[in-house]
Amino acid sequence: MIDKIINCGLIPYADAYNLQKTLFDEAIARKTTVEKPQNVLILCGHPHVITLGKHGVEANLLFPEALLKEKNVEFFHTDRGGDITYHGPGQVVGYPIFDLESLHIGLKEHVRRMEEAIIRLLSDYDIRGERLSGASGVWIEAENPRKARKICAVGVKSSRFVTMHGFALNVNTDLSYFQLINPCGFTDKGVTSIEKEIGAKTDIEDVKKKLENRFKEIY
User: Fold this and answer.
1) Which of 4, 38, 46, 189 is the least crowded, having the fewest Cβ atoms under 10 Å away?
2) pTM strictly above 0.85
3) Among residues 8, 44, 152, 184, which one is catalytic?
4) pLDDT-based confidence at 64, cuts 50/70/90?
């Protein structure tokens, strides 16, 4: 059950991280008492930023940080799982701060459910989202080596069964920024967006509302 959904609009990555961390720490603190943690879903977008997960490979950043600054792209080392990814305007980014213990699921199932929410959301736009064996996130034509392309990245962190970080769905994203990195560490896979797949821009707030409904279905 989701107790609260926070729509932050476009928010700097550092501010979103601090909000996540505050809610994450509060949830863990509640678990040391008789209070039940709240399950909170943050939905937002970020100005241009590249983030590298705790096990990420720096070589997957293809340009020096000085060039990123010229392009007004921030760079953060972060504590989520996964490798490197890009966030920017035109994405919907979701951060579930969930107590998996109260949901009676483990971390792998949490990742699977996030992916399922995105797959169902994409079906609302007549896009067939899929999973790619051995990789997280949601893909298009996942099993076609020459056409597989990622539309949603997933990376999480958990402690005492409480999660933070989450997913980044490309809606109207300027995909040229992904040329700055090997997205999620892949050198042989492409990236895509809802706009690219259907040939038209999509209202971000409409996507968020549909996502809210899909998350409530699944959780």
Assistant:
1) 4
2) yes
3) 184
4) confident
